[in-house]
Specification:
By secondary structure, the chain is of the alpha/beta class. The protein has 11 helices and 11 strands. It is 34% helix and 23% strand. Mean pLDDT is 79; it is low at 122-139 and 220-244.
Length: 244
């Protein structure tokens, strides 16, 4: 299993480390110039180094050769450093480079210099990334931004036997159906047509706003807090899982 290298200890990266540690995933390398932060997380990772990460020669020497995934979070107002580090990691042929960005414009630049994925989190976005909506109708939930979320939901009983076109799913629920699975634990398959038939027991992967997803499943913040059965989504485990 390869190493996850985390460059920069902004709020997002720190939360990622906490979540990985909770999953007993400690094959993690961390680098930042802030001694206090490094000492804070040293016991949660395999290796933690204090260094100026915008020095390419140092970074190339110290980042583990078996790194398969990299997280870049240089904190607020440090776009130039994020761009430099992203490009350095790209030159090191790291397969997957996930970078925290402060805005859409920066995101485009980061992709140009080598980022494979750019996230645009709010202050608590890292927590939301590993959060599962508490509902018996929701199996997985991922908030990508304040305006875009994805969730794996069940088919409403009243929709069974009808197609997406029949129920005008997108118009009625303001959600796009991206994929489906026939039951929990089965593989996802893409939904390629509005003629796709909805059947009780299917799980649908839908995309839209968090509010529209909650409206579809018939829940709200008050209802969420009242649900006693909590299921937690291991998004980080899925994100960094080695292909078997």
């Amino acid at each position: 299993m390869g190493t996850i290298s985390i460059i920069g200890l902004g709020n997002f990266a720190c939360r990622i480390i906490d979540e990985l540690y909770a999953l007993d995933r400690t094959e993690v390398f961390v680098a930042d110039k802030d001694r206090v932060k490094i000492e804070q997380y040293r016991d949660k990772v395999k290796d933690a180094q204090i260094l100026d990460v915008i020095n390419f020669d140092l970074l190339r020497k110290i980042v583990p050769e078996d790194t398969t995934h990299a997280i870049v979070d240089m904190g607020h107002d440090n776009t130039e450093a994020a761009i430099l580090v992203t490009n350095y990691l790209h030159k090191m042929n790291i397969e997957n480079i996930i970078v925290k960005s402060q805005g859409d414009t920066n995101a485009e630049i980061l992709k140009l210099v080598g980022a494979t994925q750019v996230v645009l989190p709010d202050l608590d976005a890292a927590q939301k990334i590993v959060q599962l909506l508490v509902s018996s109708s929701v199996y997985d939930f991922l908030q990508v931004s304040s305006l875009f979320s994805m969730a794996e939901v069940s088919v409403k009983p009243e929709l069974s036997g009808k197609t997406l076109a029949d129920v005008e799913f997108r118009k009625k629920y303001r959600l796009n159906v991206i994929a489906y699975r026939t039951g929990e634990g089965t593989e996802l398959s893409l939904v390629r047509s509005a003629d796709f038939a909805l059947i009780t027991g299917q799980h649908l992967l839908v995309a839209g706003t968090e509010a529209d997803i909650k409206e579809y499943i018939g829940t709200n913040a008050e209802a969420d807090s009242a649900v006693s059965k909590i299921r937690r989504l291991d998004l980080m485990s899925k994100l960094f899982r080695k292909n078997r």
